[in-house]
Amino acid sequence: MNIQELKAIVENMKPADLSLYYPQGDAAAFWSEAGSSEVLQASLSEIRAEARRLEGQPIPLLTYSLFTLFRQTGSRLEYERPYFERRRRLNTYVFLSLLEPENAAALEQLTDILWAICDEYTWCVPAHLPEKHEAAEINRHIDLFSSETGFTLSECLLLLGERLPLLLRSRIRSEVENRIFRPFLAHGPYFWETSTHNWAAVCAGSVGAAALLLVKDKDMLAEILLKTESSMNYYLQGFGADGACQEGLGYWNYGFGYFTYYSDLLRARSGGTLDWFKQEKVAQIARFQQQCFIDGSNVANFSDSVPRVRVHMGLSHYLADVYPDVLRPPSALRAPFTEDHCSRFAPALRNLIWTRAGEEKESWEAGSSYLPDAAWLVARHISAAGAFGFAAKGGHNDEPHNHNDLGQFILSGRGEIFAADLGSGEYTADYFGAGRYGYDCNGSQGHSVPIIDGQYQGAGREFQATVLYASAAEAKDELMLELARAYPVAGLQSLVRSLVWHKEELPRLELPRLELTDTYRYDGAPASWTERFVTWRRPEVREPGSVRLPGAAEGNGVEVTYNPQIVRPEITAHVYQDHYGQDKVWHSLDFQVLQPGAEGVLLFTFEFL
Fold it and tell me: What is the pLDDT of residues 93-122, one digit of tens each?
């Protein structure tokens, strides 16, 4: 679409008013009725509890020493904690002011935090600023959080309207224009404008959404939308036809969430003339969430994702309304108001205005999916014994938020994870720098894949898996991968990993099992060969040929069987820092091949108890 076509559409756009948010009725009626809405009660209780927590607390300071700490140490948390605490404060007082229009104290707190955010030296976080920058360049830079802030303030203006003082309304408009709109048009292109991952959707989507709410100049709005639409095309190019988000479900929530928030406003203002939801790829991406869950809140958390995920009910219900085959998540998976440590306003608002009462199942139904573009196999098995999950992946080692994890698998049962993916660690400068694969959660040393001649998998597009066979079926799921190209080991000629997830009706309460076979050929013989399996549980050697991964309940767990004539188990405890900067213990269950030869067949069975 060219600028002339966009200008013609903009010329006929519907006004940016509250009907964009409350199509079923007026705003006052929605917030008045929200108090008695059963489906919103938990969220409203959490908002009010957060308001009580904030009583008497000052607005956190963003000091010079905190701002400069990242460049000195590479640590992000010290600055970002008070930065996001400010956003949490903003969210809380916006919603409280909407729920309780007579609450003058809440509105006063809201105006103070809005003014404080307008006062911030930059809306960017230090980790996202160019390494060398002049003060004058700071507010020309647009990152994830500055664009989100611009979108947030634009929504606050529309939602609160004249309840906000004229001076504050005027300042918000000025700050968003000077920090977001004008830099976007005059100082780009920014790297994320052509990115094929979440940055394109979040940054461009936030800028475009803010413009749809605030920009009165029709030519300026058309120019912003032209650039935004281009970035959304790039974002979608990051997905294959299978709709899988290789960054993980957390980044699906993030990137596709902001894609949806923008696309909803665009469709509404254009009267359906501009409608991303008509694209089949978008429909397929919308189905990704329901494919990712393997057991309760446990997910296939490949890449920089956390093992357990709560869902954004507003986004989920919206997509289920758009697409009949998108499932409404079980209500038990609702993300609490305070869960998002970044306190993003757009999803928090839509968790209130988009959540709908309706029928939903207590848990996800059973199902298996093979996602060929991502080379992910994801399965949920439901039996009389409970819910059990399995996931495995191929791909290559230059994926978005990449981990060196080709051949990695996850096992979960009755809500417990037995074969684990460590997921995302604490984000620091080094985490995204030269030291990335020294972190256990990123390098193959922290994944359930072989270690060959003491070598881990290599990083880069050339280190890849080839899918030899894949099937998602009722009785069993299978994934067979050639992994020789994943390793920088000259003598390795072939390494075929076969993963078969058996779900047939079995004795002992229909408990599933995984059969893993690694078959290799080597030029000569490797000096060493280690089959590594990663688990949160402390493994217990029961007898030769059997290791137990114990469950929380007596008698539950997973039994790993092997040939003691071929391999010997070793158990080691490790510590890494998780995404929230907390030390977390994981265990490696290493099977050392006793006499590695030119060929080998290594078989392991993981059976639930």
Answer: 999 999 999 999 999 999 999 999 999 999
Q: In this structure, are residues 303 and 285 in contact, taking their beta carbons and an 8 Å threshold? A: no
> How many residues does the structure list for the chain?
609
For residue 226 the two structure tokens come to: 């032209």
SS3 608: strand
Strands 386-393 and 376-383: antiparallel
Given pLDDT bands bounded at 50, 70 and 90, which one contains residue 505?
Answer: low
Whose tokens are 């909407």? That residue is: 98
Instruction: Output DSSP code: residue 559.
Output: E
Amino acid at 186: A
> Rounded to an integer, what distance in angstroms lies between the CA atom of residue 377 and that of residue 291?
10
Residue 516 β-bridge partners = 499, 604
Nearest to 522 by CA among 600, 407, 603: 600
The DSSP bridge partners found for residue 586 are 574
* Cβ contact 423:441 at 8 Å: yes
Q: Contact at 8 Å (CB) between 170 and 228?
A: no
Q: Find out whether the peptide bond into 189 is cis, omega within 30 degrees of 0.
A: yes
Q: Find, among 582, 600, 580, the residue nearest to 591 by Cα.
A: 600
Beta-bridge partners for 482: 466, 496
Cβ neighbourhood burial of 164 (10 Å; 0-12, 13-18, 19+): buried
Helix (H) or strand (E) holding 174: helix 166-176
pTM here?
A: 0.95
Q: Are 336 and 310 in contact (CB under 8 A)?
A: yes
Considering only CA atoms, which of 43, 138, 170, 57 is closest in space to residue 96? 43
Q: What is the pLDDT of residues 3-38, one digit of tens each?
A: 999 999 999 999 999 999 997 778 989 999 998 999
Q: Which residue has the tokens 């890494």?
A: 576
Picking from 415, 410, 578, the residue whose alpha carbon sits closest to that of residue 501 is 410
Residues 563-572: pLDDT tens digits? 999 999 999 9
What are the structure tokens assigned to 517, written together?
Answer: 């076979």
